[in-house]
Amino acid sequence: MRRTVAVLVVSGTLLAACTPSADDRVIVAAGTTVVDSGLIDAIVDEYIATGGDGSISVIGLSTQQVLAYGGAGNADVTITHDRAALDTFLEANTDSIAFPLFSSRFVLVGPPDTSFSDMSAPGVLRGVAAQGLPFVSRDDGSGTYTRERALWASIGVDPRGADWYIRTGTGMGATLQVASARAAVTLAEIGVFLTARDQLDLKEIGEEGDTLENPYDVAVVAPDDAPLAVTFVTWLISDAGGAAIESANDSIFGSQVYRLP
Amino acid sequence: MGYLWNVLGDAIAYLTEFGPDLRAIVVLTLIVSILATMIGAGLGIPVGVWLARARFTGRSLLLGIVNVGMGLPPVLAGLFVLLLLWGDGPLGDLDLLFTPAAMVGVQTMLALPIAIGVTVGAVAAMSPAATEQIRALRLTPWSRFTLIVSEARVGVIGAVAASFGRVIAEVGAVLIVGGNIAGETRVLTTAIVQESRQARFGAAVGLGLILLVLSVLVNGLLTWLQSRGERVV
Q1: Do A65 and B198 touch (CB under 8 A)?
Q2: Is the pLDDT score of A20 beyond 80?
Q3: Is pLDDT above 90 for A211?
Q4: Average pLDDT over residues A124-129
Q5: Is residue A259 part of a domain?
Q6: Which CATH number fits the domain that encloses residue B124?
Q7: Res A13: pLDDT
Q8: A83 pLDDT more than 80
Q9: 3-state class (DSSP) for residue A242
Q10: Residue segments in chain B with a per-residue pLDDT below the cut of 50
Q11: Residues of B whose CB is below 8 A from A74
Q12: For residue A87, what are the contacts with CB-CB under 8 A and spacing of at least 6?
């Protein structure tokens, strides 16, 4: 009995030692696209290494859930890539402040032999719909899915319900795997695609264009209640933060995939 | 507390709109779970009976492997099957990745060690007198097997229940090899992950309630069979 108590006390102490106190913990909720590749972690490591205050915990969620977490007070900082959703969030949370962080792009990817007469993004989607080629959709609350819906709307096609329209409801990586296995076209965030490309039977199809820009924004949910979150975001959008973003890009992708605004 | 009641209200609203999408999820969950349990228990119970009574070198090693398998992390099984079925993998040509068949395969892998392990325990726990009697009787292997299963039926039904319980609650492995594709490979657990990822808690809880009801129904049936088995003894 005495031994059990001792074990419990020791493990409780260890657990407490590993858990930062609520006061100096900053919870950063970010889109899975930039968390899964390790980008945000690399930037946070640089912040801590250069003497940044507090303990930064990063969690990866869909953009919709990131904002839901922020709105419920579960996260101090949000990083999202859906301007319209962020604007709605800022209207509901008037204390919150947001800044442009960096920008990547979306790519349409598909089987290597995919070819259409019009290779612009709308042209590719028109071709997919006309030929009934399989198309894999995230079909979740992600910024990528919002953009995909906007692209379909721009050409006046509603693919939902079509038998060639495959809905996964999972993350970007799993969706790319399904697209590769089904020889299907999908809209991918470039960073995730570059990370997974070697394992996939997919290539970039279509031309780059303004409609595929993918800007990310960072927001402090409650600046008055979370001074350490303000400090972190102030650093993030400073020159020092910009340099950290550039070097994280270099070490992970070997090029500037997430470009500064 | 008010917040939780609201979520529960949303869940009930979600359930009242029971449509073809939700029906497909429930039906696939039942098919995959029942098939995997039937294959897992169908192979596992005979192996378990044999392993409980046979004496040979390497038996403890085999028992050890079964015990490790009972605690096999599902995501590892999922990863293993994913690599097997991957385009360039050994079974890539079968084109089974992201299909219900792949899900049944990985679920069977998870159910089999549990069916074996629990059966070994049930047979080993039979009274020495019964074991002695069965040994003395001149029986064909098949009638000996059915006699043992019928003597140890309470434990053997437990093996089926434990296998089913593991399979229907599983999420990591079926998400990896199934891909949660709407109308094709989406089951209750993977749909719950999807809904909670999007903060649609009403739908997530609604799906959870269905999962709970299915689990209670199937386990209730098995428990009823067990208690009938006890009475006959």
Answers
A1: yes
A2: no
A3: no
A4: 95
A5: no
A6: 1.10.3720.10
A7: 62
A8: yes
A9: helix
A10: none
A11: none
A12: none
Residue type, A49: A
Question: Considering only CB atoms, which chain B residues are within 8 Å of A178?
Answer: 98, 179, 181
What value does the mean pLDDT take over residues A67-92? 94
**A232 and A192, same structural domain?**
no
Find residue B124's DSSP bridge partners: none
User: Residue A69's beta-bridge partner residues?
Assistant: none
**Could you tell me the CA-to-CA distances from B54 to B59, B60, B120, B139 in Å, in that order?**
8, 11, 11, 16
Range of the domain at A10: 2-103+215-253
Q: Are A214 and A104 in contact (CB under 8 A)?
A: yes
Task: Write the DSSP symbol of residue A206.
Answer: S
Residues of chain A in contact with residue B194, where contact means CB-CB under 8 angstroms, are 140, 169-170
- Nearest alpha-carbon partner for A103 in A233, A249, A238: A249
| B179 CB within 8 Å of a chain A CB | yes
Comparing A149-153, A248-252, B129-133, which segment has the lowest mean pLDDT? B129-133
Residue A21 pLDDT > 60, yes or no? no
> Two tokens at A27?
């919870």
The pLDDT score that the predictor gives to residue A94 is 95
Decide if pLDDT at A87 tops 80. Answer: yes
pLDDT (tens digit per residue) in A10-19: 666 666 555 5
Containing structural domain, residue B36 = 21-187
Tokens 């689990």 -> residue: B215
Q: Which residues of A touch B204 (CB under 8 A)?
A: none
Residue A183 and residue A176 in contact, taking contact as beta carbons nearer than 8 Å: no
Q: Which of B176, B184, B197 sits opposite A62 (nearest CB)?
A: B197
Contacts of A92 (CB under 8 A, 6+ apart): A71
Helix (H) or strand (E) holding A26, with range, is strand A25-31
DSSP-derived pairing of the beta strands A77-80 and A25-31? parallel
Distance from the Cα of A167 to chain B's closest Cα (Å) equals 5
Residue B6 lies in a domain: no
Of B213, B180, B231, B224, the closest CA to residue B30 belongs to B213
Residue spans of alpha helices (H) in B89-200: 100-124, 128-136, 141-151, 153-168, 172-178, 188-197
Return the bridge partners of A27, or none: A57
Q: Is A60 on the interface with B (CB under 8 A)?
A: no
Residue of chain B minimizing CA distance to A63: B198
Q: Which residues of A touch B176 (CB under 8 A)?
A: 174
Predicted ipTM? 0.74
Residues A243 and A153 grouped into a single domain:
no
- Does B199 sit within 8 Å of A174, measured CB to CB? no
For residue A254 the two structure tokens come to 């070997």
